[in-house]
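From the pipeline queue, job 12 of 40. The input is one protein chain; the requested action is below.

Action: predict structure.
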Amino acid sequence: MRILALDTALDACSVAVFDTDAGLLAHESQMLGRGHAEALMPMLARVMARSGLAFAALDRVGVTVGPGSFTGLRVAISAARGIGVAADKPVVGLTTLTAYAAPLLAEDRTRPVATAIDARHDHVYFQGFAAGGAPLAAPAVIPIVQAAEAAAAMTNCRLAGNAASLLAARWPAEAAPPASVCTAAAPDIVWVARLAALADAATARPRPLYLRAADAKPQNVAGIARQPEAGGG
């Protein structure tokens, strides 16, 4: 199966073309923070050219759907949907929390993993995965202290995600330390592609995963006092 994977949910802008038989064909990733919309399409063109494949030769498109940046994650989702329509290919959505956990679970399926992404304001997007990979609960946005306590309750837990170090810093004093702390600014795009190959296209929908309201809210027009018209007496 030939997969095109896209990720703009966090700081990285990443594209990969992966073949489940031949392995990684081409990829590129840049740490941007901002400017994903301007960077994605040129990057996509470069990666597709290096892969030697046309869009019609792909089997599916995979994209991260969040949690992450409200603006950023929509960039890759919109592009993935557009490619899916134009090339008549299925598009699947993968969460950033699962993508963070995947390489650790592939390396060792005998120990649990807790993934955390910085949600700001002393909160994280959090999800725990049991040994073997089954999610212990749905993704949630919770205080860092609560997330650290939940992870500490998972015996011999490994931490992953761009907020893994935040959990480690707030780790309960009475608990055994985490088995490992793997901090990365964004998931590995190759693992996004691998997960996309395994995803059920009927249920892994390419829709943004929002766990909290945006910090920037629309101005309350109704609450603004009406100003007198220019020239009015």
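Job complete. Residues 127 and 159 are 10 Å apart (CA to CA).
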